């Protein structure tokens, strides 16, 4: 078993545990293997769970990057930095259970519409891939599912987690 962790929101590690088939036979402890340090402000890391070993890494400023084969993709999987908000933070994201078929992800974002707004919003949004290109999400497909209002702070980055659970 291996677990992905990130420390200090800058370096992503893969943790191998005793008995893990990927760990060296003499390892009888938890071992950390650095995966990357090419990201800034990591808020979430996901895999598709399809055995592809692709990591999707979210940065607080509004981008999700595909990380595969030890490399960061040239263009982001999702880029919300061009959205019409004064301040936007990407807090978390989750893949639709049938992502390969439907091309849908859910994202939890925090934003202020204008600089002097006294409220900040946290929204759960749905986004869809660009046509048949499963490697890029079209930000223009953003559909708000629910929004909660809260007090504005200097940095409206209220916490949260987006997960899809099959029940």
Secondary-structure blueprint:
Elements (H helix, E strand, L loop, with lengths): L1 E6 L3 E6 L14 E6 L5 E6 L7 E5 L3 E6 L2 E2 L5 E2 L7 E9 L3 H4 L1 E9 L6 E12 L2 E19 L16
Antiparallel strand pairs: 1-2, 2-3, 4-5, 5-6, 6-7, 6-8, 9-10, 10-11, 11-12
Walk me through what this model shows.
This protein has 167 residues and is an all-beta fold. The chain has one helix at 99-102; strands spanning 2-7, 11-16, 31-36, 42-47, 55-59, 63-68, 71-72, 78-79, 87-95, 104-112, 119-130, 133-151. The chain has a domain at 70-167. Strands 4, 5, 6, 7 and 8 form a 5-stranded antiparallel sheet that branches. A 4-stranded antiparallel sheet has the order 9-10-11-12. A 3-stranded antiparallel sheet has the order 1-2-3, with no helix packed on it. A hairpin with a 3-residue loop joins strand 1 and strand 2 (11-16). The longest helix has 4 residues, at 99-102. The two termini are 24 Å apart. The relative contact order is 0.14. The model is unreliable at 1-11 (pLDDT under 50).
Characteristics:
single chain; 167 residues; 5-stranded antiparallel sheet; 1 helix; 12 strands; disordered N terminus
Give a quick summary of the entry.
The chain has 1 helix and 12 strands. It is mainly β. It has a domain at 70-167.
Structural class by sheet pairing and helices: mainly beta
Q: Report the sheet with the most strands, covering strand number, pairing sense and barrel closure.
A: 5 strands, antiparallel
Tell how many strands the DSSP assignment holds. Answer: 12
Q: Which overall shape is indicated by the principal axes computed on the Cα atoms?
A: globular
Mean pLDDT: 74
User: How many helical stretches?
Assistant: 1
* N/C terminus separation: 24 Å
Bin the helical content. Answer: under 10%
Radius of gyration: 17 Å
**pLDDT below 50 for ≥5 consecutive residues: which ranges?**
1-11
Estimated share of beta-strand residues: over 45%
Tell me the series of helices and strands, N- to C-terminal.
Answer: EEEEEEEEEHEEE
